[in-house]
Amino acid sequence: MSVPSRSGDPKVVFEGVSKVFDKKGEPLQVLQDVDLTVAEGEFVCLLGPSGCGKSTLLNIAGGFERPTDGRVSIDGEEVTGPNPKRVFVFQEYGIFPWASVWDNVVLGVRDRSKEDRHRIVDEVIELVGLKGFERAYPMELSGGMKQRVEVARALAVSPDVIYMDEPFGALDSLTRLTLRSELLRIWNERNPTILFVTHDVDEAMQLAERVVVFSARPGRIADIVEVDMPHPRDIGSPEYGRVKNRLYELLGVTHMI
Amino acid sequence: MTFAVATLVVSVAVLLAAGRLPKGAQNWVLPIAVAAILVAMWDAACVLTGTEVFPSPLDTVLAFGELIESQRLWGDATASLFRVTWGFLLATGVGVPLGLVVGWSTRTFRALNPIIQGLRPISPIAWIPIAILWFGIGDGAGVFLIFLSSFFPITVGTMAAVRNISLVHQRSAMNFGVQGLELFRRVVLPAALPQIITSLRIALGVAWLVIVAAEMVGMETGLGYLINDARNAGSRYDLVVATMILIGLIGILLDFLIRRLERFDEVRWGYSQR
User: How many structural domains comprise chain B?
Assistant: First the structure.
């Protein structure tokens, strides 16, 4: 089942991607035959239950793991390893606790001229709302601010693809909401392609243009649901409820308790 | 005896009333009161048993004065500290780089870890005859023994620290193209540093224990030798106890100094917040 992209040129293309892990001698299939095309500048959420392989798929796209079968290509070139143009934002904080906010954010542009470094770092720190915290260390920041640092570090390299693996999963629900709307603002401003893994139906609905729903292990694409609602989205509208019902249905869980 | 009883009574009263003092003051008052009780009990025990050999607290204070006056104390303390300092610095210089490499490279780890683990349980004290054979009686043997006793905690601690570096940090580094020597400088060393400092602290504590034992067995200067000498030269247990107390105080000072390393911004994250 090859799904054509919604708009724009194909950016990230998964073709027949399967992944089998070796678990104490037993083969464990976590992904089976995943075909997916993500368009340039698109915001796609990968939604599924825990252990469905959606994070593994993201790690394969990011070049941290190799598929057992199939291939992932970006701009027509097969992914064989990590690349600074495509940046990963981790759930647990991937920023370095031993370095200040500024030193963390400069990581991806450390080889640029001094002028460039200052211009870029100041700009992205301002963009994520961390101005004034440049010299702070991560331990002095709240969870939400740490995640802003991580996003700033990713944005500094002007990536064309950003992979986000449940980036707001460890935050409280109010901070999550704020960061979601700020992520949308940044996406609008810079328009990178975003692949965003989550197990939270509302998160997927609020962010994505398309939601790719995974079945439980071995992870397969159950369906792809378009969220054809302009931002800002009215989360009380009938359309929102209809799409949400559809997602719950695909996940096989009841939405009435 | 009246002195002991009076101290005991006052100290217990202070302990009971200390709850009303501010927290900062309690940190000082409580341990001092407990120490005073212990000294009072020590004094009382000396009086009650009528011992002629074991020194009372007052004898010990006088012995301290005698040691300072005779100028032996300074020479022996610096001899011990000299051996510990050089042995410890050498062990740090060799152990930290070695631990970083062995911890990072799986093949080196496979090759060297069994050997390191096999040599580690051999007490540095057991090396004393060999140390004397190789270096003679003197500073060389002492430095060598302290090197041995610090080397293993530092190397093993650094190895473990590197092997504990989180996958997320390694992947962040890979993602931003950090590799080779830059990877060591930017990620491996800073990530491992808090645990390395902890292993340095453990190693220094061990070194201070070992040097005293080594000096008692196989050297002719140092605080360990001073203890042995005081006993052999007419059972001067007052000098023995005074030296023991000094050894404890220097140990506290060394630990205090090395703990300053834990305060830097670059490593504070690695220690639990209290």
Answer: 2
